[in-house]
């Protein structure tokens, strides 16, 4: 088929034809007048759906795929898994040669060529189907070795979605190792890791009854109404784990901060229980702290570890300490939930975890004013616009309270309290409920890799020891670069604290999933510090592995999927790992020997994009761009052009890297001619987002404000910048001015999100180890590849246009334009006739 690349360049197409012989129309377009402009003429064409309405895949001869395939050696990928082809039975040898045939090993017979089915599946197989498919070859191998097949139970039933309840490895072998031969030398280590997780699980069940009940400890630990036998209305009980303390008491403004008025009793496991009678006057909203004394006579006070609200310091810009708050609001002040969690629909591209379109947001910096944004302001002002753009999930950063605002929320001091600067816990519930009402999931950026070293407000030396929930050894207990405390996941009470924390946010605040921060620092005892991961399996297992942390992550995913599955929602929880090491199995089910995550962040490409943005045009070759986006782990990934990491102080947003100082004065569309840096930057900003979404993973993420090319960088108020909010906010007014290119970039982002929702670009990447392109021409700077039955064509040349450019396709038929980066409404020249086919 022919696709016309005029002054434009990228096209996404979906082929439909009644039969494989349906003729393909030649699409032509007018050549733009400004063909050899000094600024680049990069644009994109997205093409989909034809008028016939039939979805037929056609297997074309190799020589019809296009001239680019021959040059690069790349054949078009199989978009749908072909059906199994039985091997023909070998003919029996003549009787006189039978003894000789028995003595010799029969030669291998060539397998017949695979053929694509004429009718593709509506969607690739789900992960639940993949799990069942992976399990039984193990049994087949065992049966074939004995010459007989034992009767095996049915495969574990998979709940709709992704989880498999109560699943175990079959015949003691891990599917993770069977499916990846490179893991064979490490199967013993991986099996030991799995067995460690199983032993922890069994221990919890013996002691607590179930993993779910264990994770409900947040209802008992901390400060709560006393419901024990003999308690009176208004009595309060406080439970805390502090084995290093000799004495412990609760004090606050309710007793004028008298330290030893209400002392607790300690059990054999280091748990303290303090009883406060109704007469003491401890009520909702009271400021509290816990006073402790160690065996060597040291006295100090801390904020209770399980506290659910924090009182702000007097002046946030000074080193004043915070206080905990006893949180027990009356019923009339509690949020009344109006909407349920979002249920996954396997037939919907909007809610399936592998086609999530995630909007990463920081509520505190979501205001344009110089100050802290609030939960209610974000819900009322921004959520509707995010949903209208086409995003299916909001990922909230900095949810757990952190005394140091400039830490971006990654130095948590109070794990059960929402960030106090943005509002009350009920305000956060209001935000989550509002997002659910708009059909969007809400994910929490959870920090369980480490904790702040703040001892006054946080958990560091909580009971006077260097241990408590952390490693006490200096080499393991502190992160060498971050200066934060590292959890000891081998401790029973650490597991209680962290697993309860997940259940708390999931149950009390109705979060739909979690993005686990700093997973690399959890997986290895070296924490990833000064360690270059080169991709060898030996880097992931053995002496450097933190198997206790791996066991915790397996328990966490098991808890969220099996133990805490909502009967109404099922197992629709989404878990994402921020791991830069690329360890195999992070996104494989726990019973396969993996860690159980749905997705991992594709962390390499964004940094490479940032580098490429500062390089000249001739470095933007199709082969380099293709390798940049696709060179990632084969496991399901979240693709993104930039997150908050890429635009922190010391770096810039992608748009600012492309256009730099020209953005201050030249973003107006009324200025003619358009500044070359602006024309180039606007075009490349759109193309990079499209290429990353289409090639880079199974889900998509964008950081707040960068969808419209937010300028400059992010920097939080701190002493070094005079505690300024200048770069800790979002300048939303830029996108409201229709005379600026910011509005066009936002419209394109919305068009891209809706294109994925309608035509399944992300979903087409499922089950592909690595996306390939069948047309890569560096001399012409043209790149073409398929997303399912969609075709994307990209002209990366800075000034050449091609009015009649021939590109092959696996799918014959008539092509229709569905997204064009050069459309006028997206800040382009609009040189292509949308009505042409």
Structural notes for this entry:
The protein has 837 residues and is of the alpha/beta class. Helices cover 24% and strands 14% of the residues. Mean pLDDT is 80; it is low at 1-165.
Tally the beta strands.
Answer: 27
Oligomer: single chain
| Low-confidence blocks of residues | 1-165
- Strand-residue proportion: 5-15%
Q: What's the helical proportion of residues?
A: 10-25%
Topology:
Elements: E1 11-14, E2 44-48, H1 67-72, H2 98-103, H3 127-146, H4 175-179, H5 187-208, H6 211-214, E3 222-225, E4 236-241, E5 245-252, E6 265-266, E7 271-276, E8 287-294, E9 299-302, E10 310-311, E11 323-325, E12 357-361, H7 375-381, H8 383-389, E13 393-396, E14 400-401, E15 414-418, H9 425-437, E16 441-446, E17 450-451, H10 474-477, E18 485-486, H11 492-508, E19 513-516, H12 519-523, H13 547-563, E20 574-577, E21 599-601, H14 604-612, H15 622-630, E22 637-639, H16 654-659, H17 676-696, E23 699-703, H18 733-736, H19 741-759, E24 775-777, E25 782-787, E26 790-795, E27 816-820
Parallel strand pairs: 12-13, 12-23, 13-16, 16-19, 19-20, 20-21, 21-22, 22-23
Antiparallel strand pairs: 1-26, 2-26, 2-27, 3-4, 4-7, 5-8, 6-7, 8-9, 8-11, 10-11, 14-15, 17-18, 24-25, 25-26
Helix pairs in contact: 5-13, 7-9, 11-13, 17-19
